[in-house]
Amino acid sequence: MVTGGGRSHGLPRRILLLLALLLCAAFASASEGPEWSVVNVAHRGGIAAGQPENTLGAFRRAIAAGADAIEIDLRGTKDGRVVVLHDETLDRTTDGTGPVTNYDLSDLGKLDAGDGARIPTYEEVLQLVSGTGVKLVLDIKVSPALDKRRVVRLTEKYRAVLDVIVGVRTLEDLRELRSLNPNLRTLGFVGGLEDVEPFLAAGVDIIRLWPRWIDADPHAVERVHQRGRPVWTTAGDAPREELERLVALGVNGVLTDRPALMAELLADRKAAPEHPAP
Predict the structure, then answer these.
(1) In Å, how far are 6, 44, 115 from 33, measured between CA atoms?
(2) Angle formed by the axes of helices 122-129 and 148-157, to 10°?
(3) pLDDT tens, the chain, 278 aa long
(4) Domains and their CATH numbers in the chain
């Protein structure tokens, strides 16, 4: 497979999906494999682990904790660079103020993102995870300042197309990113249950459902599974009991602030007699 320049060279979609299945447990349906095959995703690097969110220190801690993937938030700077920051503004997570789009990268590099950490670039995070086996989940923020072409080209530069899952919030972003590189795997951060079917029809690979949606509609996970897609959820700072409940409901990936706790839970499930290793 050649990923440079955004071209797929005509590889059939079914072959690309087969490669994705082999490379990442994210595409395993709970009904088709062991229940413990759940993707442990460190939400913003695992923000309950004592490191400032979306910083290289948090990402290193997540890798050490046994996370399968790290979720990061991408935003664009005034000079078109791609940085890792959750909010539109700098006020909550740094000692800066105002919109991130008011700053060039060099100015952002002078800010404190907590405990002396700096706002990392997407390229720095790609360098950090290279060779670790840990995947990246990109939360593509809806913003005209975020250069999605640059995001894709940097992903290709580090040969990370199959190590990245791109989280999209709109069908327009889904189509644009697929046009830039059809090999990219995609996660639909849908706005509600009514959006699930349009995202599935557009070819998204994974659907994220909030726990409250799953509780309100007990068949929501099953319907997505019946379409051959896995379901992820965002659990935040939820305790072990809630993580266990979500896994029991059939979710295939959990974005958690506590990746070490999730790793412990999954290890216990793997070791349990009723969940033998394949």
Answers:
(1) 32, 28, 42
(2) 30
(3) 333 343 443 455 555 555 544 444 443 433 344 343 799 999 999 987 789 999 999 999 999 999 999 999 999 999 999 999 999 999 999 999 999 999 999 999 999 999 999 999 999 999 999 999 999 999 999 999 999 999 999 999 999 999 999 999 999 999 999 999 999 999 999 999 999 999 999 999 999 999 999 999 999 999 999 999 999 999 999 999 999 999 999 999 999 999 999 999 999 999 987 655 44
(4) 28-73+133-268 (3.20.20.190)
Q: How many Cβ atoms are within 10 Å of 59's Cβ, its own excluded?
A: 27
Looking up tokens 């800066």 gives: 96
Tokens 């939400």 appear where? 43
List the one residue out of 81, 76, 86 whose CA is nearest residue 52: 86
DSSP calls for 34-46: -TT--EEEEETTT
Could you tell me the CA-to-CA distances from 80 to 13, 151, 175, 239 in Å, in that order? 31, 11, 21, 39
Structure tokens of 252? 């295939």
Nearest to 126 by CA among 114, 138, 116, 143: 138
CA-nearest of 75, 63, 56 to 263 is 63
Other beta carbons less than 10 A from residue 78's beta carbon:
15
Counting other chains too, the contacts that 241-248 makes at CB distance below 8 Å and 24 or more residues apart are 242/211, 246/211, 246/214, 247/35, 247/38, 248/35
Q: Which residue has the tokens 């923000």?
A: 47
